[in-house]
Amino acid sequence: MSTGVAIVGAAESDLGVTNRSILGLQAQAVSRALDDAGLTLRDVDGIATTGVSRFSATQLADYFGIEPRWTDSTFAGGSAFEMFVARAVQAIQAGQAETVVISFASNQRSARSRSLGGVVEDHTPEAQFETPYGPLYPLSYYAMAAQRYLHTYGKTREQLAEIAVAAREWALLNPAAFRYGKGPLTADDVVGSAMISSPLTALDSCLVTDGGGAVVLTSAERARDLRRRPVEVLGYGERTTNTSMTAVPDLTVTGAAGSGADAFARAGVTPADIDVVQVYDSFTITVALTLEGLGFCGRGEALDWIAGGRIRPGGDFPLNTSGGGLSYCHPGQFGILLLVEAVRQLRGECGDRQVPDARLAVAHGTGGILSTHATVVLGVDA
């Protein structure tokens, strides 16, 4: 099944420590993605972007000097970009736009800031029941989920560390990765790194880098005449579950179950059909909870399921093949780069980290403190 809409361009901006402005990085990502597609800004009539700063779709359009017919600036954290894919598909299907660019960039590392706008207003439940305890936002919230998960299912920090170890193995195959050339990790390295919020250490946690990316979408019919092999959007789904942890009845269950089920149903595929998977890895626990929610394994099974090198290069479940937010790049919101990597894998452009014969991919974003969840299924013709 297909939506009749395809991704026709995908690119990163400069990554790492760039000393560039946010809009400068946005311009890099968008211009590179358009060039990848064989298009120009004159072709763009739709923009979707959001950010850790105030640069919305309106400001990006102004910066580019264009007047789009359609925009979206939904702020949902790291899942926003997978949500944007759904919105862009719907806009193109409805004739509101012909060519949509989805983009994001941040200069967090150059700016020496990890702020994600996590300011708690005085009247909210989290201000009353959580803030007085001084949690680190968002780390301490994910740490609570990790603590509950390890306790409930009798798992160990060493098992959880496998997610970071595997991400580093993939990053060593990606010259664009921030940790490229830094050497492999062991579970002991991860567990023994600085404790930040128990049980999560520095190496259980994502990077802080500059960077961004962009993807370009248009109709599948038009895509056939463009420069690159089109990657069709087959399905999508989303869920919004909570703002604070006070509202969460079970920290080991996420909205990925609903978003994934909808995406797979729309695409007419099952988790077993997927060749390559890109999921948000803000922290190691995020990956475990997401794999279970998406149905790749049962509840409480993820850490056993990934053991033995299954998610490392050469394993039978290629996961976060760029190196992910843990070892490749994390500019505050990573969801756009999940899409970029999924597209490149399906087009066969990933060099040493290429997954052979990849035809179906999932990109899944998570935002806030396990608050928002969005899943996209992508595919190419055999």
- Reading the helices and strands in chain order gives EHEHEHEHHHHEEEHEHEHHHHEE
- Order of strands, main sheet, comes to 3-2-4-7-1-8-11-10-9
In CATH terms, what is the architecture? 3-Layer(aba) Sandwich
- The structural class is alpha/beta
**Rg over alpha carbons:** 19 Å
CATH C-level class: Alpha Beta
What percentage of the residues does DSSP assign to strands (E)?
Answer: 15-25%
Mean pLDDT: 94
- The percentage helix is 25-40%
Shape: globular
End-to-end CA span = 14 Å
CATH topology: Peroxisomal Thiolase, Chain A, domain 1
Structure description:
The protein is globular, with a radius of gyration of 19 Å. It contains 13 helices and eleven strands. The chain starts with a strand and ends with a strand. The protein has a single domain, classed as Peroxisomal Thiolase, Chain A, domain 1 (3-Layer(aba) Sandwich), CATH 3.40.47.10. It is 33% helix and 18% strand. A nine-stranded mixed sheet has the order 3-2-4-7-1-8-11-10-9, with helices on both faces. The longest helix is centred in the first third of the chain and has 16 residues, at 22-37. A hairpin with a 2-residue loop joins strand 5 (195-197) and strand 6 (200-201). The chain has helices at 22-37, 57-64, 80-94, 125-129, 139-153, 157-171, 187-192, 220-223, 256-267, 284-294, 302-305, 324-327, 335-346, and strands spanning 5-12, 46-49, 70-72, 100-107, 195-197, 200-201, 210-219, 231-240, 276-279, 360-367, 372-379. It is of the alpha/beta class and 382 residues long.
